[in-house]
Here is the input.
Amino acid sequence: MEIKTLSIDWTPERLLILDQTQLPHHSEWIEMKDLETFITAIKKLSIRGAPLIGVASSLFLANLVQQWQGKRSVADLIEAAQKMRMARPTAVNLMVCIDRILRVISLHQKSDEKIELVLKQQVTNEAINIFQEDVQLCEHIAINGAKFFADGDSIVTHCNTGALATAGIGTALGVIKHVAKVEGKKIHVYVDETRPLLQGARLTAWELEKLEIPYTLVSDSMAAFLMKQGKIQKAIVGCDRIALNGDFANKIGTYSLAVNCNFHQIPFYVAGPYTTVDFECVSGAHIPIEERHSEEVHGVNLKDNRVLWAPKDAKVYNPSFDVTPAELVTAWILDRKVFDKNNISQLKDLR
Here is the structure.
């Protein structure tokens, strides 16, 4: 079997990923030849998006089983899975998917045994199941969310939540695609640049161009002024982890967008699959926030050189995510159902 999406190309023998750090002007595919290469790709954001890194990690584990069959032990495979599990500490989908693979391993094999054919088949089947499930989850999210958007709406979004971030059509951007391309509503999308790594400018704008959905690129700090001018009617974002009380983590700058929407009385929606819900996390106060390297704020790496716009020794604080409190959310658009402030306490029932 072969799996081909906008950002991954997989067979049981190999995994290629589209290097998202090179978009939008260069399309380069990288083969994930070993564990270190794959973990580095996650940390460098060559492959990114909470749902996608969970799916891709599952598929890469299936590749490892193929490579290691008869050569390495089950314990080696478990160790590799645990290393992958912590590659991005905020994105819970990664952990959910890895844990599904680990359950398959633990049910059928002892750790001191060599990897056998039957385990290869079981891990590969589960990885394919995880991929196919994410495709379906995206479709259900899109259908559930489309009803909140009307013909003529201008919608602001933050970071990238489309086919580059999932196995399917996306979460927040998947909703936007469904509204525009399936329901035929005329909408306009305001795309936050999403500093400091510009996933909105580089990735969301690129996807919207491919989809031929009208958009305008703005810097993150412009959103409030656009709201004041009456140019934005709705906001929708994705998420990397949802706590049981509805607090959620997403790319840094999401909290600011939610505050601005609340002040201007603009509906603010968050879209994500059930795999983004952390059933062990009571509130956003318990969500771990990844802090990334200062070089991402000092300047930018271009294809052939690096541009610095800050003093090279400038002290930097660079959290990759922030947490938006539940009271700022109009509705949580999930694959199973839509939650609002009146029933968000039932989120735990999705377990």
